[in-house]
Amino acid sequence: MQTNLISKIKDIKNNFVADMKDSNKNIRRKNKLKKFLVSFFRTFLIIGLSFIILFPIIQQAIWGFHDPSQVNNPAVIYIPEKWSLLNFKVASIALDYGKALFNTFRISLITMLIQIFITAIAGYAFARLKFKWNKILFVFVVITIVIPPNALMMSRRNYFTNIGLTGNELALYVLAFFGMGIRSGIFIYIFKSFFEGLPKELEESAMIDGAGVFRTFWNIMLPNAKGAIITVGLFAFVWQWNDSYYTNMLQVGSNMPLLSTGLANFIENVRGLLLKPEMVQLMGSDYSKIVEYHTIVLNVAALLAMLPLLVMYLFVQKNFVESIERTGIVG
């Protein structure tokens, strides 16, 4: 009888262990299925978004390699029957690409450096220095973000006309130096938020060593604001690169070729270019009245203007993502 009882206990134990194993297997299967569904959905979503974003760019790039004679060929949709770089050559000539690229890069770089320095000083002052009307002045900084640039266009243009800087790239540098450049209010807000997050012990230790306000900012605070500097620098560079509003308002593009102003007036420029006898001879026909071809060359010109930014982003992608995380920018 005792033997039967022991065997029954063993059977119950074995059944319990077997049930637990089956239960664990079911749980593992459910977890694996859940992970698979999440991974599949995430992959599907990423591929879908990538397709939506990249397809127009890839499509226009492929159309850029079409021979101009295939513009009105209904049989050619994506892959060209005859490959050609002629569209890129026409777009480069219409943009005066070499000079426009150099001028745009120079202006964007100088403006970026001025924006970083000035907005960093302003952000540090609002974050750390306690002075009268601090909060009220910062409200005015926020207002510069809210007010549309068009509301200030006439007053700014008249001001720079009166001081004789219209048509001079120096006008863009003056705007940036006085904290009124492209999105300067946002940059001041980024630096203010970043400096507020740094420990006050850094400043206190510097002041104990005899450092003044500017030395503390330059030697202690600014080197620790690498994330904010990278974020502001990239935004300032890209926004100035793509800017056509300020350059047209101040007529900066009237004295030198720029990529942004070249794209804004591209259709008129390319139409006049295609009428020239040497271009007709180069292309083998007159394309000045073919609207579809104007659109293709315009897209090629936009790709040429965007290409340097894409190459630059490939090199700074890691630092840019890290800086966005450190500065806490969302949306």
Question: What can be said about this structure in brief?
Answer:
The protein is mostly helical and 331 residues long.
Key structural traits:
2 domains; 15 helices; mainly alpha; single chain; 331 residues; MetI-like fold
CATH superfamily of the largest domain: MetI-like
| Global structural class | mainly alpha
| Strand element count | 0
Number of helical stretches of at least 4 residues: 15
Average of per-residue pLDDT values: 82
Q: What profile does the largest beta sheet have?
A: none
Q: How many structural domains in the coordinates?
A: 2
- Indicate the low-confidence ranges by residue numbers: none
- SSE order: HHHHHHHHHHHHHHH
Radius of gyration: 30 Å
The CATH class of the largest domain is Mainly Alpha
Distance between the termini: 75 Å
> What is the CATH-assigned architecture of the largest domain?
Orthogonal Bundle
Q: Which fold name fills CATH's third level, the topology of the largest domain? A: MetI-like fold
Helical content class: over 70%
**What would you call the shape?**
flat
Q: How much of the polypeptide forms β-strand, as a percent range? A: under 5%
Structure commentary:
With 331 residues, this protein is mainly alpha-helical. The chain has 2 domains: 2-64; 96-264, MetI-like fold, CATH 1.10.3720.10. The protein is built from 15 helices and no strands. Helix 8 (201-208) crosses helix 9. The protein is flat, with a radius of gyration of 30 Å.
